[in-house]
């Protein structure tokens, strides 16, 4: 849900980084939210909105160890809006909420790099920093593990 909706028919101009429309666009794109996803089977595929929501809660349903599949790198970068820049970073928090199985974060394609521990045991939260490392025809991002804690 946007913090400040942009009126229909108006597109923020990425060249006007300091304008009110660019500010509204950035506030809406970078605002964090809590999102719950129910797992099932041995795999869950996230949308860009879910992956970058700020605080993702994975709920009961997986039937065994499961993979947490990120969307394509292009989808991740596109969801950040037209004013995103190389070096932009934001925290991503994923919680395994009493699923009883361990989840493993996996890249959506070869342009997403995962560094550090990417497994998320049951009743554990793992925090990552997602950094945009390239834009254009071949966007790239890195998810760096920065910590974990138990529920």
Architecture overview:
With 151 residues, the chain is mainly beta. β9 (124-134) and β10 (140-150) form a beta hairpin. 15% of the residues lie in helices and 43% in strands. The mean pLDDT is 85. The protein is globular and about 50 Å long. The protein has a 6-stranded mixed β-sheet, covered by helices on one side. It has 3 helices and 10 strands; from the N terminus they run αββαββαββββββ.
Question: Which labels suit this protein?
Answer:
151 residues, mainly beta, 2 domains, 6-stranded mixed sheet, 3 helices, 15% helix, globular
Name the helix and strand elements from N-terminus to C-terminus, one letter apiece: HEEHEEHEEEEEE
Biggest β-sheet: strands ordered side by side in the sheet: 1-3-5-9-10-7
Distance between the termini: 27 Å
Total strand count, please? Answer: 10
The geometry reads as: globular
Contiguous uncertain segments of 5+ residues: none
Mean pLDDT: 85
Overall domain count: 2
Q: Hey, roughly how much beta strand do the residues contain?
A: 35-45%
Write a brief structural summary:
The chain is mainly beta and 151 residues long. It has three helices and ten strands, in the order αββαββαββββββ.
